[in-house]
Amino acid sequence: MAWLRENLLLFLTFSGVVSGFVLGLGLRNLELESKTILLIAYPGELFMRLLKLMILPLIIASLVTGAASLNAKMNGMIAMRTIVFFMATSLLAACVGLILVIIIHPGTPEIKAVVGSGNQEERKIEILDNFLDLGRNVVPDNLFQATFQTAGTKYEEQEVNNTTLYKKALAYRSGTNTLGIIFFCLTFGTVLGSIGRKAEPVVNFFRIIDEVIMKMVNGIMWISPVGISSVICAKILGVANLSSVMSQLGMFILTVCSGIFIFQFVIYQAIYFFFIRKNPFKFWWGLFQAWMTAFATASTAAALPITFRCMDEKNKVDPRISKFVLPIGATVNMDGTALFVTVASIFIAQMNDIPLNAGSYATVVLTATAASIASASVPSAALVLMMIVLTAIEAPVADVSLLWAIDWFVDRCRTTNNMMGDCYCAAVVEALSRKELDAMDQLNEKIRVEEEEKMMPVRGMHKSPSTSSNGSRVAVPDEVIVVENSTDEEDEETKALNPLPLV
User: What does pTM read for this prediction?
Assistant: First the structure.
């Protein structure tokens, strides 16, 4: 009972996940109308909207306060360590997916004969444009526009001499440009911290916003069991021919999920133990609440408010590091996506009996890693990125649509991996930056003591003024010796030492 009282919210959230699956599978036999499914999904929709409502103010407040609490040199070192960790783990995840898809070999021409050809519309897409768009979004030209629009390359078809040509144009689509906001907030916070005491009112303003948002998140978490159950149940009810799809693509699902959980429960744990020398599974258990939220929402960004809470309250990671790493990771770190894109691309090549050599495998791994970095933290973004990889190995892009039927489940699994990668990165970066953080703490303490000494009264005057016989306040010199409950002999000695009358 003591454990249950302490972990009541965790238990309720887990119950919400289980009940969502049970209700979804049980209600499928009733063949409910679309209107009924919509009503079942409505609480989950409101829950998702509440979480997304918290993302932008939380990112702004946490990044500004986190960057302002560190100096520019420290911010640069943390950013470098974070980027290296993200790139290394994404590449490693793609390699794990490559090994598993070659060993298990889930794709066969027989599956293609059963499920048929895909009907995905051909779309022009290039990885170079993806990275150019990434740079454009990192440096937005309008901060207010970045809160609701994202820049992207648009391809316009033109017929010239019976030949279809594509003209590139910069366009904007709906969606928060998180990267641009992160860049501005990091820069703003770093400069704010360098100003010194004059910037304290502004830093305190953002610190209070951060605290208010986290209190609001704590309230939202108590409705998460209902919201999570609603989201999962509605997704299961909305999938047509669930049993046949699962049986036909079962080996593909097994390959992807095996890679995700091997990476999550073996590789991440080994990395954590190597750098931190503590029990990694205790760290994972502290993130279980965020893990279930990421699974239900299928979005690392949507789970970000709860991830902050778990890292701070459960795992005690330095807020200066977690507030810096987690928002960046939610946008650019997609280990699970890199693994999925690798497996899915080779799976489609296997279905179409396309021979691949070592060069093709290397192309898939590198392209999947690069594409995952440019991926948006939205549900099913990986299916769009697969077109880049399939084009690189000359596999049919149309077959991407065959994976839509099972992506609702696989997407949730890989999102948990993406979220865990951000958290383990924050823990490792904190361990690598411990000396610098301790040095900053000592420096801040020294500055605080010096400022307190400057605030002390002029030397030679007692701190606490006394009251004269006429009621006015007078200062007592430091040299005055006040003796309480003294004897006559002590009074004589005191008078000899102190010619001034005692007050």
Answer: 0.80
